[in-house]
Design a protein that fits this description.
406 residues, Aspartate Aminotransferase, domain 1, aminotransferase, Aminotrans_V_dom, Aspartate Aminotransferase, domain 2, transferase, single chain, alpha/beta, Aminotransferase class V-fold PLP-dependent enzyme, PyrdxlP-dep_Trfase_major
């Protein structure tokens, strides 16, 4: 089965927007287009429910129900309990709050593991625990390939309390074997925190099956509003010190959101589930349970992305002036493709913008990963990223523009 691209693109108002006509969007790793169900729910909330939720009057009651709906439906898709899903202002902020909880939870001399493959949001806050006497061990990437070698992990895990790593790097693109890594950590008694921000846009993961204790991703990269979403499994979540108001200490999804939530954006997140359900139903899987629908849509997305990604990787391999970071095989990576060139990333991005191709240049908060691979941070890389709503014709447009610019 293949994705019906006409149906997919009809769910995104951006593709009918005159000001964007003819422009190929390849900066999806920084934020995806928003799907219509999310926009509709957000508009409805601001028009009809923009009051304090959970009071008995009608607008308040309905607003609270829509917020609860978002949490419940996302939990079903992710294969976790409803109260294990929390919302926050961003994944960076959510990670910072979690790190403060671990700062109180751990004792001086305890060890945690971070990687230098991560976006700074899932490594910087954890590294700062060294100020509290926590031992911070670094799981280092191969400087030639950007790969995280599994054979280096067992030694690092000895006596460690926590392992933080990405499902997928936002510059290397390689998909890490999360379930295998989590099983290795669990065998050594270490908790796991997985940054899923760069993977989730390519299909929601079955977090329950992965075995991660914490799984983080950003709704604005999964076709939704600007919210950070975090799954915290109950045993760990209740063991960590409460970071919210003291009277919310027994409510798992409130323990790690010290600030008041954005009611409208939380409610609008149910639109992401609407979109997954619409895709599943259109492709003949509407009668499946939510987790199975999400898995089917995940596989459809990944298959389409891999098919149109491989020609781009093959083309980049023919350009001697470019260095491709990460795997050369589409099945081993997400369609987030970074290249090092003679020009700076910003210069190439500017030149491609004149060819109606929207891309980004820079370091993308992955300074440690790029530095480890020998990239000059002042020059950065050109990053081309897409998702399932991208067409083969747009990839051809990108390749043609690269050919002219280079």
């Amino acid at each position: 089965m293949q994705l019906d691209m006409d149906f997919v693109r009809a769910q995104f108002p951006a593709f009918a927007e005159p000001s964007l006509a003819g422009q190929a969007f390849f900066e999806n790793a920084g934020g995806s287009y928003t799907c219509k169900p999310v926009i509709d729910r957000l508009t409805r909330f601001y028009h009809q429910r923009k009051v304090q939720p959970y009071y008995p009057f009608e607008a308040s009651r309905l607003g609270g129900e829509e917020m609860d709906e978002a949490r419940g439906r996302l939990a079903l898709m992710l294969g976790v309990a409803t109260d294990e899903v929390s919302f926050g202002p961003s994944t960076s902020a959510n990670t910072y709050v979690l790190a403060q909880a671990f700062r109180q939870h751990l004792a001086p001399g305890d060890a945690i593991i971070v990687t230098n493959q991560d976006h700074e949001a899932n490594t910087g806050p954890w590294r700062r625990l060294a100020d509290a006497g926590i031992e911070v061990r670094e799981w280092q990437i191969d400087p030639a390939t950007g790969h995280l070698p599994l054979d280096r992990l067992p030694e690092l895990l000895k006596g460690a309390k926590l392992l933080c790593f990405p499902h997928c790097s936002n510059v290397v693109g390689e998909i890490n074997p999360v379930a295998e890594i989590c099983a290795m950590a669990q065998a050594e008694g270490a908790a796991t925190c997985v940054d899923g921000v760069s993977y989730a846009p390519h299909g929601f993961a079955d977090v329950g099956a992965l075995g991660a204790d914490i799984y983080l991703f950003s709704a604005y990269k999964t076709y939704g509003p600007h919210q950070g979403i975090m799954v915290i499994r109950r045993p760990l979540g209740m063991a960590l010190p409460n970071q919210g108001h003291y009277f919310n200490g027994e409510v798992l999804y409130k323990r790690f959101t010290p600030a008041g939530p954005d009611h409208a954006q939380i409610a609008a997140c149910a639109g992401m589930a609407d979109y997954v359900d619409a895709l599943a139903e259109h492709h003949g899987a509407g009668d499946l349970i939510p987790k199975a629908r999400a898995a089917m849509v995940h596989d459809l997305m990944r298959a389409h992305e891999a098919t149109i990604l491989q020609p781009l990787l093959d083309y980049l391999g023919t350009r001697n002036e470019l260095r491709l970071l990460g795997p050369k095989s589409a099945v081993r990576r997400a369609p987030t493709v970074s290249v090092q060139a003679g020009e700076t990333g910003h210069e190439l991005a500017r030149a491609l913008a004149e060819q109606d191709v929207m891309v980004g240049g820079g370091t993308f908060y992955a300074d440690r990963a790029l530095h480890a691979q020998g990239v000059d941070l002042d020059r950065g890389v050109l990053r081309m990223s897409f998702v399932h709503y991208t067409t083969a014709a747009e990839v051809d447009q990108l390749i043609g523009a690269l050919d002219r610019v280079l």
